[in-house]
């Protein structure tokens, strides 16, 4: 019995205590640490919902609020997008239009360009300050490692993943991260303000 209890604690220590979302996602997953340096060192090509190819370095020059989702997700991913939209709504007037919001899909099979375009329109993120993009499995893996985000494809084609939102500065360096839905936007806005003063 003691060995069984010890084994359970060992598992909890290694993987963390999962939070019950009533869904296939969890924000209690263990996370890898993000790589140091700029995410703009990644040279992969991504494609937006408008069919435009680009590299991450093209986002340089202003703060970017970003996350990774998949559009077939019905519960957690829409909440991530709504959290990002809340950050946008909370921006002070002088920062409106000066912050980029970017969502990257890790569903290479189902998230076609047309699917991304449909998702952007449905969630009202089809504006100049937003982009939603897709790429190949290698690019997705490299970006997730750089951001420190974990995801895992399940047998049914859905994903288990972190609820991570990252803010990178104008040089592509991660300055702020949050991995839950309980945070207030004040800290995020403060981090963005600090970046704009650099």
Automatic annotation (TrEMBL):
Xref: Gene3D superfamilies: Glutaredoxin (3.40.30.10)
Residues annotated as binding Cu cation: 73, 77
GO MF term (any one): metal ion binding
Name of one Pfam family that matches: SCO1-SenC
Signal peptide: 1-22
Alphabetical UniProt keywords: Copper, Disulfide bond, Metal-binding, Signal
Membrane spanning stretches: none
S-S bonds: 73-77
Annotated InterPro entries: SCO1/SenC (IPR003782), Thioredoxin-like_sf (IPR036249)
Superkingdom of the source species: Bacteria
PANTHER family linked to this entry: ELECTRON TRANSPORT PROTIN SCO1/SENC FAMILY MEMBER, LINALOOL DEHYDRATASE_ISOMERASE DOMAIN-CONTAINING PROTEIN
Family to which the UniProt record says this protein belongs: Belongs to the SCO1/2 family.
Protein name as annotated: Protein SCO1/2
Source species: Novimethylophilus kurashikiensis
Taxonomic lineage: Bacteria, Pseudomonadati, Pseudomonadota, Betaproteobacteria, Nitrosomonadales
């Amino acid at each position: 019995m003691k060995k069984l209890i010890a084994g359970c604690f060992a598992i909890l220590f290694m993987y963390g205590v999962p939070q019950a979302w009533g869904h296939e996602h969890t924000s209690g997953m263990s996370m890898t640490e993000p790589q140091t340096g700029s995410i703009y060192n990644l040279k992969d090509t991504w494609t937006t919902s408008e069919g435009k190819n680009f590299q991450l370095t093209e986002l340089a020059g202003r703060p970017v609020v970003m996350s990774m989702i998949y559009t077939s997700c019905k519960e957690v991913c829409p909440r991530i997008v709504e959290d990002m939209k809340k950050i946008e709504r909370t921006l002070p007037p002088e920062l409106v239009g000066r912050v980029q919001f970017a969502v990257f899909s890790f569903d290479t099979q189902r998230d076609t360009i047309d699917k991304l375009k449909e998702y952007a329109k449905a969630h009202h993120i089809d504006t100049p300050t937003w982009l939603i993009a897709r790429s190949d499995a290698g690019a997705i893996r490299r970006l997730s490692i750089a951001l420190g985000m974990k995801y895992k494809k399940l047998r049914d084609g859905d994903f288990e993943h972190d609820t991570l939102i990252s803010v990178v500065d104008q040089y592509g360096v991660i300055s702020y991260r949050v991995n839950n839905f309980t945070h207030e936007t004040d800290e995020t806005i403060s981090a963005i303000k600090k970046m704009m003063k650099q």
